[in-house]
């Protein structure tokens, strides 16, 4: 842990409450009868012991230890000092059970052995489990080393002159290969120092100021990290026999595999914090968290409560059996991210200790209930019986209930529910590990998503125990109400699944009903929803944006991998939700690596209305991880496409969730560094940089910094001068920064600087391979045969950038591949080059100077300019170190001439290993290690394949088949063609073959299939000529009409300056989007005293006096005569639907006073829904439309006497085009006609308007 400074670590001493028989139970068996070896009886002796297994100590693995007679075990070298030196010490890595001046030549024996005996190891395991019940309740060691000092004397002890004084103690080292522990057992301590350490010659006591008592503890050997038991190097160290850190006098237990020593037991200091059994929990809850830390013994009237993510529950504990641990149950979270676990010792009045856990996605959470098909009518439910949450419950659980829950979302009330539906299996035996249920019981009418929950028998009432959230309760709580949360209980869950019937007919009916209710997903341009890559190689290489869909993994490990998508080989999905609306993208590829479009095959991917990882705010309809995506995207696809296996039915889904056609996809830029640092820039320029120290790989040219990537380079083969990347750190914007570094034990470690906690943390990756934080994901790669070995890590950032790090087999440095979002192009520079498609400026120094034709020496000296200065580093440093510790030593000489002659490697050997790979030949010669050369060659090939796979391709977009026709061809990239054919009795018009061209457009003309009876094939040319002539004639007429309209508009402008606005007309407003022509909002008419919602103002007596500016930049006004609207509340003769800045006497250019009707064909193409409905016209009266406007009388009032001709009933609801569409800032203006059929009302309106107009004039 960072901040572990140079100080003696004091632990809480738990007084002995019950004196146990140390003779019989403290020491593990030892002696000649157990196969122990004995050290020679010489003073200051040692023996080196080769270990059968690696022993992890201070985060390093060791296969050799030195057993020294002076009560100390060392690793780096033998320890012959008999007077203990105060910790910390440099260059001495020690385990000191009792480091003092022992003299077995006078008295005593030292025994040692390595132990594999199962019974002894299980005894060791029991001690460790009891000492660390939270994290290691299931620990099983595979090896142990036992050293026993029996009745040993201190130096210069004279038993003939004085009474014999001897010590007996024992050190036990144990490991499972990943974790390690050390146990100190003290049976008898009668002396603490020898005569040469200024001890009392008679008693061996350290009573004088000069005397130095024994040292008990651990030393890392770095001069910084250590652990010393209280009383070390004083006479008080003698108390180790009557004190303990595990409530067992004379026994001390420590965890020793980490970079710092972890003492067992409890600690009341607030700085110690809590310990927790697992740091990753299921988003559905039901996990049991074993929590320790505070000393529970000795607290009167103790009442422990847990609060997990704000949900308060009573803790379960039995301090008589286990005085260190309490257990807390996690609630149903229904979100991802971090959750706070808090502990109270006073029944919930105050919570003083806390720790965080990470809520992980369902798909990567182990221990789920697996639902598989046993046969056509039966499902098998299975679970792991060796590790269930019930193992840590307050009582032994033998029987369980298996319950089907349904998941519901109600957008109207913003209610989310997990509701018990039915009992699938009651009182089933937990130990069986499986249960069979009828498939029909898993299907529920009116419920689309179900999930299986396994709980202790009798713990759930399926009639009342509903788990729910509403818009007003973002945190669950304990209550008996319907919309609250029952008490958290231990549980196991399955993955959610589709509960609809499996028949194609039922699916088709469901699909049509869904399509009527569902909304089309139209992503906003500014939402930056990622487009699908055109090729599978691009999807593989774009690791910052895309990840493999777990249910459709190429050569997948799941039993049903891609089973529902027969034409798909693999699918990818976006890692992060789009920033504004939380959308996702699903992309599927066939066995040729081509993108599959959902309109061509039911196996295609589609735009996802809700991202699989959820969205913010939490606990809102549509934002729930996994469930919302399943409900709104996956289930509809399964019903409309997968189950029917028909494109006709799948079109219902694809019309609302369209596939990406990759036309706008842009791949990331990549750069790499590997081996003896070989760098490949963004613009494909390669060079070798033998750097030693810390350097800036990538940075933005201007502040604030959007990206910052730094690397640490060290010598990887001692004395060779060969360097490599040993650590790399990256930070994007204000996200947490991540560092990946070489680890001797695990190959690599991943550190995350948690901005909220203000410190570096080391994720355990114990149960999963993932770590999640806001805006970033970390995935570790593991060795396929040994899960404890990490072979690499991927860090993905929300902008689509990534850092992919690999540790090759036998490698000593990291291979790094950086991918940057296209949005960062032309903004970055550093050792990885300047990304601007110009390789000539890649060698640019921090001050902006270019190095056009550098020699290796000039390049090295110039690019040293990118070495980090004090205060610039974002790298993590071990305790006690800083950037200066990683600078090149004075004797370091970079590069040098490399030939086979001066390296002792033949050309044949070089060619055999490397071929023509320059990096391989360089590294082989530099290090003399064939494996290092081959690793460089492999990294070079991976970088080349990735770069080639990400090559940008030209796509022309999806090309649909003509109506009443078909097409052949479903690839829409440069050079690909699509061939069309028409159905019988239909004739093709347009191009039969269309090819994707370099412009990104299709060759030829749009293809139509026209009915043969309507168009005779032989007369087709004639009809085309007639159409052209008619088009020319219509164009001429249009020009004439346009000229006439301009003249009329000028005349009307002059006349309208003297007229009152049509106060009888209700002006209403609506906005029509330029992009899709859909009406976004429509206001309605109101009385004059009542204002409109969109900034419109209604004035007195029907005259417009003011208008307010709307957000879209238009001024809108609405006129409504109070005496008219209030009387009978009927529509006046005509309603203008968007007239723009209307008021009395305005200029024509500033506003529109009347609405004109023109032919539907004149409407600009971008408006596709720009029509309005007219009301029934049964001999209705209304103003004349013969001249495109309203006629006015001399008094300024509209002339309502002119009546249109009666219209046929079938035209009562005819679509009328919009009258005067004026484009302005991507918006259009519209108009609507509303008629009146009451003659008396018209006459009354006419009189009132005339009077009002005269008063106004």
Structure description:
The structure is a single chain. This protein has 1257 residues and is α+β, with helices and mostly antiparallel strands. Strands 1, 6, 7, 8, 9, 10, 13 and 14 form an eight-stranded antiparallel β-sheet that branches. Strands 38-37-36-49-48-47-46-45 form an eight-stranded antiparallel β-sheet, with helices on one face. A hairpin with an 8-residue loop joins β48 (802-806) and β49 (815-820). α3 (504-517) crosses α5, α5 (627-642) packs antiparallel against α6 (647-654) and α8 (907-914) crosses α9. Residues 1-24, 473-483, 556-560, 1057-1192 and 1195-1236 have low confidence and may be disordered.
Question: Can you give keywords for this protein?
Answer:
single chain, 1257 residues, alpha+beta, disordered N terminus, eight-stranded antiparallel beta sheet
How are the secondary structure elements laid out?
Blueprint: H1 22-25, E1 37-38, E2 46-57, E3 60-68, E4 72-74, E5 94-99, E6 102-103, E7 109-115, H2 118-131, E8 143-154, E9 167-175, E10 180-188, E11 215-219, E12 226-228, E13 251-255, E14 262-263, E15 275-276, E16 280-282, E17 288-292, E18 305-308, E19 311-314, E20 325-329, E21 337-344, E22 353-360, E23 370-375, E24 378-382, E25 399-410, E26 415-429, E27 434-438, E28 449-456, E29 467-469, E30 491-493, E31 497-498, H3 504-517, H4 536-541, E32 546-548, E33 570-574, E34 584-589, E35 607-608, H5 627-642, H6 647-654, E36 669-674, E37 678-680, E38 686-688, E39 693-700, E40 707-715, E41 723-732, E42 737-743, E43 747-754, E44 759-761, E45 770-773, E46 776-782, E47 790-797, E48 802-806, E49 815-820, E50 828-829, H7 856-863, H8 907-914, H9 918-927, H10 930-949, E51 965-968, E52 977-982, E53 986-989, E54 993-995, E55 1008-1011, H11 1020-1056, E56 1070-1073, E57 1079-1082, E58 1108-1109, E59 1115-1116, H12 1122-1128, E60 1171-1173, E61 1215-1217, E62 1227-1228, H13 1239-1256
